[in-house]
Design goal:
Elements lengths: L6 E5 L5 E6 L9 E3 L5 E4 L1 E7 L5 E11 L6
Antiparallel strand pairs: 1-2, 3-4, 4-5, 5-6
């Protein structure tokens, strides 16, 4: 779950909410996706970020002017 504070929280199947990661985006689009290694992929307006299961954010691709969404294909 991502909110206006740009913190990403994890919600367990039982409903427990725990902090997962912080990002400082220009804009976060409506979509997030997980890769095959269960890393979170998210577009922040200028980058596509990979956030590991430990909460570490790494830019995968940069230089966009409006990277707004992710979808799994």
């Amino acid at each position: 779950m991502a909110g206006n504070s740009f913190e990403i929280d994890k919600i367990s199947p039982g409903g427990e909410v725990t902090h997962f990661a912080n990002i400082k985006p220009e804009f976060v689009g409506p979509g997030m996706a997980f890769d095959s290694r269960k890393n979170l992929l998210i577009a922040d307006g200028q980058h596509v970020l990979r956030i590991s299961r430990f909460g570490t954010a790494t830019p995968l691709v940069s230089g966009f002017t409006r990277a707004l969404d992710m979808r799994k294909t």
